[in-house]
Amino acid sequence: MTANASPVQPETKAIADLDALHRAFGAFREANDERLAQIETRLCADPVTEEKLARIDRALDETKSRLDAQALERARPRLALSEKGADDAPAREHKAAFRSYMKSGEIGGLKALEGKAMNEGSGPDGGYLVPIPAEREIMLRVANISPIRSIATVRETSTATFRKAFSTTGPAAGWVAETDARPQSANQQIADLTYPTHELYAMPAATQTLLDDAVVDIEQWIATEVATVFAEQEGMAFVNGAGANQPKGFLTYPLVQQASWSWGNLGYVDTGVEGDFPADFPSDVLFSLVYALRAGYRQNGRFVMNRKSQSRIRAFKTTTGDYIWAPPTTPGGAATLMNFPVVEAEAMPDIANDSTAVAFGDFARGYLVVDRVGVRVLRDPYSAKPYVLFYTTKRVGGGVQDFEAIKLLKFGTA
Predict the structure, then answer these.
(1) Which has the closest alpha carbon to 234: 73, 126, 395?
(2) What is the DSSP letter of 192?
(3) Alpha carbons 177 and 135: distance in angstroms, whole number
(4) Of the candidates 260, 305, 324, which has an alpha carbon nearest to the alpha carbon of residue 411?
(5) Which one of 38, 138, 332, 372 is CB 3.0 to 4.6 Å from 395, fit for a cystine?
(6) How deeply is 265 buried, as exposed, middle or buried, from its count of CB atoms within 10 A (0-12, 13-18, 19+)?
(7) Rg for the chain (alpha carbons), in Å?
């Protein structure tokens, strides 16, 4: 770049990448149509065409990854903006005391604040609460990175366990005239759902030189260091977590065929082929998955799968010859499958024998994430000298809250 050249604006780069994604998908469709035509005429595809299609497919994935990264960067909040509503004296006092603790280990200011606030969750609980603006930024960053958190319902709690009553038969109701007696409606079936919170930790390290640098924003640094680690761990737990010392992932609940679905289980539709889609009209099983979900949930439905599964489905067509996958139409938007958004969750399994590699549902109604209020930091200058470790923890839980709202595609015969 010359001295007079102006840097490329992020919005311009995002639009350019989006155009490149659409051009790549156009080339992908042409190459795939050529491959299908070769199969029809020769009973096999030309290896050159197969290689061309694979190369374009990789380019599609790379371009989509760049778009996702740009969208994440634009969505990241800045700590200075987060502090606008928190410039009162107690917040400023907490911020100054926390910064002193992070830089030098001085705990007097934080102890005095906690004594004033009668905060029982301080040092004995494993650290000191970060200021509210920094906590808010950490949680916003995690939400932007964690795929399931971004589409699930999120609740905050001040206790170790969140309890929720849920009617498995729907609310009791009936019709009456204005002056009629109100007869007792049918008894409801109430499920008591419990979501314990579990400790999630990250331990970034810094040199004392970095901490002594007056230019370094310690809160911004800690938020940047821990957000991605928290999000990656959450992403795995919300899909495959066992529920012991971690949230319970939606794939770890009992599974039953959709025809035999009952409360407490997740229903699935099978492909009829072990570890694969059907050879003829493979997109039909995806339509079956969509319509296994009741209409009230379907209007907010989303597909959840990993990048490999999406790459496989990208080549599918309807019986009329239309591709069912489409690239995003705006920077930061989601690709669509049969006009429903696609959420990429790398914790989802690959397509394999009896795997449930594709999920579809209204995850806002189907999955609940529970955050215990407060992110804590414990400064440790001793364990890894000359580095200072910052043991950062938060408590989070999760699990299915509506078993009707999520359906799975199982790659098997039953």
Answers:
(1) 395
(2) E
(3) 52
(4) 305
(5) 372
(6) middle
(7) 26
Distance CA 282, CA 316 (A): 7
Counted residue by residue, the chain has a size of 414
Judged by DSSP in three states, 128 sits in strand
Determine the Cα–Cα distance for residues 277 and 351; give it in Å rounded to an integer.
9
Rounded to an integer, what distance in angstroms lies between the CA atom of residue 198 and that of residue 391? 15
Chain segment 311-329, per-residue pLDDT in tens: 999 989 888 888 999 988 7
Report the side by side order of strands in the sheet with 255-257. 255-257, 266-270, 406-410, 358-361, 302-305, 340-344, 336-337, 325-326
Q: Which residue has the tokens 């958190």?
A: 149
Domain residue ranges of the chain, discontinuous segments joined by +: 10-75, 87-168+191-306+345-414
Torsion angle, alpha carbons of 182, 183, 188, 194, to 10: 40
What span, in angstroms and rounded, lies between the C-alpha atoms of 14 and 272?
Answer: 41
Please choose, from the candidates 255, 197, 192, the residue with its C-alpha nearest in 3D space to the C-alpha of residue 398.
Answer: 197
Q: Residue 171 has what pLDDT?
A: 59
DSSP assignment letter at 350: P
* 160-203 tens-digit pLDDT: 899 987 776 665 666 777 777 766 555 666 778 899 999 999 99
Burial class of residue 174, CB neighbours in 10 A (0-12, 13-18, 19+)? exposed
Model pTM?
Answer: 0.75
For the segment 77-90, what is each residue's pLDDT rounded down to a tens digit?
444 434 444 456 66
Which residues lie below 8 Å from residue 405, measured CB to CB, with a gap of 6+?
293, 297, 361, 362, 363, 365, 366, 367
pLDDT value, residue 2: 45
Strands 128-129 and 376-380, by their bridges, are antiparallel
d(CA 403, CA 369): 15
Q: Can you give the pLDDT at residue 183? A: 62
**Positive or negative CA dihedral for 151, 325, 28, 351?**
positive
d(CA 110, CA 377): 12
Q: How far apart are CA 165 and CA 143, in angstroms?
A: 26
Give the 3-state secondary structure of residue 84: helix
Contact 172, 186 (CB under 8 A): yes
